[in-house]
Recover the amino acids of this structure.
């Protein structure tokens, strides 16, 4: 028998990456290491671990074997050099920006973003940390180029935007970021690496809310920062001191010069998780690993059902428009074919002819669909963003992020398609 020397396929990685049989017992499923701390062999061993001179487990705010397994699997699936898991998607965003920005620095972000992210970037970040975000219409990437200043330290987009389901031109924006010497961070929550791998299109860092399709069953909040390992932090002068200048907390250690392509990942654990305390819990990591085992199978069914629902709604007399990039009439249909050839996800919006009242009435009348503030569950979910997830935004910002008054957001699940459509139809009647 000849050995297969090519890298394993996606489905194989979903099952095996990061999780060989457990060394001591041979346990085939990854154990939940429900422990806060790890016994040092002796004082010298402890001192080496604390000084990052030797790698090993110290304390579960920094690293934990179950969480390390999840990090390794997610890095493999996205084609990254390394990953740092966090307590939630928002924690991943806080952690990545805290490594890249100083007070008075700027982020350029797409206007089409999850409403909670817009809140985080536009209220708490400037108030607490002095990070300013310039929101631009990323449908024309030239707007991003025009917004870059010498204070820009990061460009932030979603591969598929929540709630509108629009597909972003990652390669065009990556080229602009590269020219400016600024990392491009892509929130790939809505696509997952099964539908789109942003690093292959030039993204430097991928983040996820693993709360959604990655864990898949609506059980666990979580997030992750996956670094491509390709950005030259030390080559950008004084711009990225956390990653490329001596760190006083580690006796002058320089992360990029010491850890190379793993700089962001080591910094994420040794400084980000240490100081921000936004670590994921081992049980959540275990459930997320379980969810990942079936990611490809689930995503195929999610997009198949989403396409069928979108086509049905597009013909429905109560519906003004359906914003799903899988429909040939959608303005970003060609982008969808390029970036998400297996299908542009399972979350999208549609607009009702009856306006705000029709949107509210729809979410009150569904029976099979669950009215919740979540996406990416195995069950079909629905919400009226203008009165909930996006209610804290000004009306014009709501419109810009795809959450106008008459908009309903669907996260199409894995049920039988006939049942999903029957429930939608009875709620629209
Ligand atoms: N990014 C996207 C695209 C999201 O939809 C969400 C949550 O809905 C987040 C980030 C934040 O993730 P979390 O709720 O895990 O903090």
């Amino acid at each position: 028998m000849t050995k297969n020397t090519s890298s394993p396929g996606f489905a194989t990685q979903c099952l095996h990456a990061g999780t060989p049989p457990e060394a001591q017992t041979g346990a085939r499923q990854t154990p939940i290491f429900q422990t806060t701390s790890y016994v040092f062999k002796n004082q010298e061993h402890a001192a080496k671990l604390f000084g990052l001179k030797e790698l090993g487990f110290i304390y579960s705010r920094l690293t934990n074997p179950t969480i390390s397994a999840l990090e390794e699997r997610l890095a493999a699936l996205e084609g990254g050099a390394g990953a740092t898991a966090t307590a939630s998607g928002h924690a991943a965003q806080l952690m990545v920006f805290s490594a890249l920005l100083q007070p008075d620095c700027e982020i350029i972000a797409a206007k089409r973003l999850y409403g909670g992210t817009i809140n985080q970037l536009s209220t708490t970040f400037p108030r607490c940390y002095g990070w300013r975000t310039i929101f631009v219409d990323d449908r024309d990437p030239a707007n991003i180029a025009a917004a870059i200043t010498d204070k820009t330290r990061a460009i932030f987009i979603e591969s598929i935007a929540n709630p509108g389901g629009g597909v972003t031109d990652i390669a065009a924006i990556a080229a602009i970021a590269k020219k400016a010497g600024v990392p491009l961070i892509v929130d790939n929550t809505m696509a997952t690496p099964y539908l789109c791998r942003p690093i292959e299109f030039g993204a430097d860092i991928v983040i996820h809310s693993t709360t959604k399709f990655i864990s898949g069953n609506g059980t666990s909040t979580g997030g992750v920062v996956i670094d491509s390992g390709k950005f030259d932090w030390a080559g950008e002068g004084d711009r990225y001191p956390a990653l490329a200048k001596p760190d006083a907390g580690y006796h002058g250690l320089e992360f990029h010069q010491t850890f190379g392509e793993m700089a962001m990942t080591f910094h994420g654990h040794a400084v980000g998780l240490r100081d921000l305390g936004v670590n994921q819990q081992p049980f959540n990591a275990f459930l997320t690993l379980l969810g990942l085992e079936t990611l490809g199978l689930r995503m195929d069914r999610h997009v198949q059902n989403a396409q069928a629902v979108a086509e049905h709604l597009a013909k429905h007399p109560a519906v003004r428009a359906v914003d799903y990039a899988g429909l040939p009439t959608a303005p970003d249909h060609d982008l969808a074919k390029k970036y998400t050839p297996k299908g542009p996800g399972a979350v999208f919006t549609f607009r009702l002819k009856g306006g705000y009242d029709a949107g509210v009435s729809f979410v009150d009348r569904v029976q099979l669909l669950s009215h919740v503030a979540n996406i990416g569950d195995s069950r079909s979910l629905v919400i009226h963003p203008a009165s909930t997830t996006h209610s804290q935004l000004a009306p014009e910002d709501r419109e810009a992020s795809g959450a106008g008054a008459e908009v309903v957001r669907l996260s199409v699940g894995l049920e039988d398609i006939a049942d999903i459509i029957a429930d939608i139809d009875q709620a629209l009647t």
Q: What stands out?
A: The mean pLDDT is 96.
